């Protein structure tokens, strides 16, 4: 049975810059087999687009709430996007 691929935009707020949040998100996305990207936003947030099966996206969202050890996440906003195609998952600058 094939799983439906979805793409989701996440906006993560809190103490999420300067704590290896992007690199940790990239590693987690690779482990979950997701494609997309992650980057810092000037207002102190981290945003990302991740594409893959819904169960893996749900698992990523759970991880985004925790983040790496020094992160302090206050909110994660999830928005469904039209399907996009990425090669792998990368940190954007």
Task: Describe the overall structure.
The protein is of the alpha+beta class and 93 residues long. It is 27% helix and 41% strand. It has two helices and five strands, in the order E-H-E-E-H-E-E. A five-stranded mixed beta sheet has the order 4-1-3-2-5, with helices on one face. A hairpin with a 5-residue loop joins strand 2 and strand 3. Helix 1 runs antiparallel to helix 2. 28% of the residues are buried. The model has no long low-confidence stretch (mean pLDDT 96).
Strand residue percentage: 35-45%
Poorly predicted regions are: none
Number of strands: 5
Termini separation: 37 Å
What structural category characterises the helix and strand content?
alpha+beta
Distinctive features:
5 strands, 5-stranded mixed β-sheet, 2 helices
What secondary-structure arrangement, pairings included, does this model have?
Layout: E1 5-15, H1 21-32, E2 35-40, E3 46-53, H2 54-66, E4 72-81, E5 89-91
Parallel strand pairs: 2-5
Antiparallel strand pairs: 1-3, 1-4, 2-3
Helix pairs in contact: 1-2
């Amino acid at each position: 049975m094939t799983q439906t691929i979805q793409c989701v935009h996440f906006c993560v707020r809190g103490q999420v810059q300067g704590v290896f949040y992007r690199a940790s998100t990239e590693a987690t996305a690779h482990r979950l087999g997701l494609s997309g990207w992650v980057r810092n936003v000037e207002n102190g947030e981290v945003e990302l687009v991740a594409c893959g099966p819904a169960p893996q996206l749900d698992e990523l969202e759970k991880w985004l709430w925790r983040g790496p050890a020094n992160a302090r996440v206050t909110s994660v906003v999830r928005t469904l996007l039209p399907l996009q195609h990425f090669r792998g998952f990368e940190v954007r600058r």
